[in-house]
From TrEMBL:
Higher taxonomy: Bacteria, Bacillati, Actinomycetota, Actinomycetes, Pseudonocardiales
Gene Ontology terms for molecular function: dimethylargininase activity
Catalytic EC class: hydrolase
Domain of life: Bacteria
Similarity field: Belongs to the DDAH family.
Keywords, sorted A to Z: Hydrolase
Naturally occurring in which organism (per UniProt): Pseudonocardia alni subsp. carboxydivorans
Record has Hydrolase as a keyword: yes
Stretches the record annotates as Disordered: 1-27
Protein name: Dimethylargininase
Gene that specifies this protein: ddaH
Basic and acidic residues composition bias: residue spans: 16-25
Amino acid sequence: MLDRGARSLRRTGTARPDRAPEAGKRTGWARHAVPMTSVLMCRPEHFTVSYRINPWMRPEQATDTRLALAQWETLHAVYRDLGFDVRLVDPLPGYPDMVYAANGGTVIDGTALTARFRHTERAAEGPAYGAWFRAAGFAVHEARHVNEGEGDLLLVGDTVYAGTGFRTDPRAHAEAAEVFGREVVSLQLVDPRYYHLDTAFAVLDPAGGPGAVAYLPGAFDDASQEVLRFRFPDAVVVSDDDAAVLGLNCFSDGRTVVHAPQAEKFAADLAERGFGTVGVDTSELRRGGGGIKCATLELRS
Ligand code: ARG
């Protein structure tokens, strides 16, 4: 499997700090150690689409669990190849969406805010991920309000950007601010295809800065678009086509962006900005309405 991952690497660029959005801040890469990226994943052993809780899901169409597994193994191998510390949580039989680990919680400064799912179909995943956080030694805060983890809560610099409209309750935004002691900025999602924030908004540089993110404006209401323009004047604004292949559901360690290969224009924009890019096809997971980022939960200690 590692071979397959290695072969699939399609580096279309290397990080060039002098061309990055925050050039001044990032010139020291070669000299300073970069903190290791640690992520949690869940092997899609029980992946299928057996219910419909987002417009991408079509339970009447057969899924290919072996293909989902093979694509996931490639993503896993790419992360290992990038030097990430990759941890695994055991998949629960009967919970086909558990592969979307990003929804399992939010972990910042060693504290995990557990997930509380909107739909009963996924309810048991919250405690399963919670048990994993506890066993792994994280401080665990049990959520009071519905939140779907990093699907809707994304850290950029010192600020949490929080989606609402379809899944996460706005009261969970205040709860996250309290638990993490960070500023939380609420963003209103309006397009049912982009029901989680991580389908419409991507963190390219976790350190923050005016060009630290990419997003699809049409997925947000006018007020949220205004907030995004103000906070990220140099953001990558993606096309409808690139968003429609879940191109924004990518994962970046700040230097290399792992993305859907179908999002071609987006990949070219990233390379142009000096990011390394690696395409990994997770087309089978897209049938459940998720992609690369959905399958990846960042563990920040
Ligand atoms: N079928 C899952 C759901 O609707 C997909 C979740 C995708 N995850 C994500 N982080 N966007 O809940």
